[in-house]
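Let's sit down with a protein and look at its sequence and fold side by side. Please make up or recall a protein chain and show it to me in full. Label the sequence line and the structure token line clearly, so we can match residues to local backbone shapes. Go ahead whenever you are ready, and we will take it from there.
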Amino acid sequence: QVQVVESGGGLVQAGGSLTLSCALSGHTVTATTMGWFRRAPGQDREFVADITWNGQIRVHADSVKGRFTVYKDVPKNMVYLQMNSLKPEDTANYYCAASWAASARRESDFDSWGQGTRVTVSS
């Protein structure tokens, strides 16, 4: 059974950094595209970034380009979202998800989801 579990959320001041972790069990990150999404209060869920099974990193949200990146630790079977230069508008619930689609391009391509972790950026 596949399970996705995020951790690492919390309160951080604007300009600070935070790294979210995502543990995948029941499958391997070397055969899975792992995505990060976020949902801010009152907004739709946004596709932030992903890392493909073969290590390609794609940052989708224009507002985080140059500030966020994704990487994975294969031996630990984990994926991380490194967030730098955080802004109050980055405040959201962040979700990790797994996809086995040939080409994961949208939320509906992701099959297994974590419960989310809250990030709050204070001004």
In short: The mean pLDDT is 96. The chain has no helices and eleven strands. The radius of gyration is 13 Å.
